[in-house]
Design goal:
Length: 225
């Protein structure tokens, strides 16, 4: 067996972040008397994604994401509101969302039954991510969870993966596989860290960075373990 452990991204790899985000955003916008139609939710998602990409590229601090995304949304909508209040309420609503991607539990169980260790490796707020993992039922299927907020570094930084490896038994990077949907954090993170990657690409997007493997469903991972 080539690999002994797998680092799984959470959002839009094991947890259906898009669905959870849409529910949480719509709810908080409605509660604050703002438009909460599909177009507004999609606009927020686009704004949020752009801030996270800038953060992962080292262009802005993480605090700028939480300080600015709803402020930017309000500006785009031409509406008044309290961005800090909305941000706090959204974070709570998001922590309650725990929809899983099809096959998530099955592939984790399969890998563990095959003798591999599996870890959650994710950017985000620790309180939010831990609650979502627990509520989703994925918690007992992980050998460990590593959130960027606690690591002091974030994907795709090499230091983030260095931190993870310091806290697990496996030290040989050739025995580790990173699985994730994000080119900018998971795939680039593997390149920066000298770790093989498997790109989870259900939408068939064009790759920006090379990966060892590419899958459209989580079930396909069985072919490469």
């Amino acid at each position: 067996m080539k690999y002994t452990c797998v680092f799984f991204d959470l959002d839009n790899t094991l947890l259906d972040f898009s669905a959870g985000e849409a529910c949480a955003v719509a709810q908080v916008l409605k509660e604050n008397g703002l438009p909460y139609d599909d177009d507004t939710v999609k606009l927020y998602s686009k704004i949020n994604k752009s801030y996270w990409e800038r953060f992962e590229n080292g262009e802005i601090p993480k605090s700028a994401i939480f300080e600015s995304r709803f402020k930017t949304l309000l500006e785009c909508l031409g509406k008044e509101g309290n961005p800090a209040k909305i941000t706090k309420e959204y974070g709570y609503n998001l922590s309650l969302q725990h929809q899983t991607v099809k096959g998530a539990k099955e592939i984790l169980r399969y890998l563990r039954s095959a003798g591999l260790r599996v870890y959650a490796t994710t950017n985000g707020l620790a309180a939010t991510q831990y609650r979502r993992i627990k509520e989703s039922g994925l918690e007992p299927l992980f050998d460990g969870v590593f959130v960027s907020e606690q690591a002091g570094h974030q994907k795709p930084e090499k230091e983030y993966f260095d931190f993870v490896i310091e806290h697990i038994p496996e030290k040989n990077r050739r025995k580790i596989l990173i699985v994730g949907d994000s080119q900018s954090s998971d795939i680039l993170g593997g390149i920066n860290s000298g770790i093989d990657t498997c790109w989870y690409n259900p939408q068939g997007k064009a790759a920006k960075y090379p990966s060892a493997f590419e899958i459209n469903t989580l079930y396909e991972l069985k072919n490469y373990i």
